[in-house]
Amino acid sequence: MSVEISPALNSTAAAARPRWLRLRHSRPFTLALLMSCMALLWVSPFIWMLSSAFSTTTFGEEMASILPRFPLTLDNFSEAWNSADWLSLYGNTLIFAFGTFFVQLFTITTAGYVFACHEFRGKQTLFVLFLVQLMIMPVVMMIPNMLTLKTFGLLNTLTGVMMPYFTSAFGVFLMRQAFLAIPKEIEEAALMEGCRWWQVLFRVMLPMSWPSLLAFATVSITYHWNEYLWPLMMLNDPDKQVLTVGLVSFAMGAESGGQWGVISAGTLMVCLPLMIAFIAFQKQFLRSFGFSGIK
């Protein structure tokens, strides 16, 4: 035997629920709506850049609309590519970003291993001095670094631009924490088998610290790819400039003619390699940050 409940009774029961219970059920929808609005606000400049880069519009219309205007075209990319020596800019940026990271790969792993696995007098004091570097603004060190590089004759060279970044306090701290998480017995077993310290480091410790290393690689390469002020101060030769400096020089000339579509196309060309790398290795990036404890 079934009992039917009238719609009026259902509405009465719903109205009789406590107000806090009704608000509790509405919170997920409100939170999702709020987060969607914030995400749309955050991504709107990128949407405008895509719209402007692929659209053919007049000067008065380009700045106002975020929606693309059909037919879409690649003329802005062609004009932007012909307006600067992009191959040289890409090459210099790759040397700067990846060359710096490969040197850091050696310095941060060896320093992190020493701080994590070896005992010596003044170890804690020296490690604190490493961490103090994180509290110093990079801008404060630019003039002393330039004077030092001038003494070595490395001004206006890519080597001079990379040299202040050859060590990283953040990288040393990250790798030290990763090595401390590895059981001491594994290192002792490798040493008992006859491994030297560098064999223990590169054949045992590093493969077990891969997530932390990938997290640092993401931070380091992205930071140096987007670096602007230091290369601007160090490099005078246009043939040695990096993408960010070349983009600003190119955009200043295009802005004077109101060519916002060309500027957007050039900006997208600078961001595109990092975007492709993130899309291709998104799961590995997020997993590496999770395992390394970065939040």
Automatic annotation (TrEMBL):
Localization of this protein: Cell inner membrane; Cell membrane
Keywords tagged on the record: Cell inner membrane, Cell membrane, Membrane, Transmembrane, Transmembrane helix, Transport
Transmembrane segments: 29-50, 94-115, 127-147, 153-174, 200-225, 260-281
UniProt domain ABC transmembrane type-1: residue ranges: 90-281
GO cellular component terms, semicolon-separated: plasma membrane
Membrane topology term: Multi-pass membrane protein
Matching CDD domains: TM_PBP2
Entries under InterPro entries matching the protein: MetI-like, MetI-like_sf
Similarity comment text for this entry: Belongs to the binding-protein-dependent transport system permease family.
This protein's name: ABC transporter permease
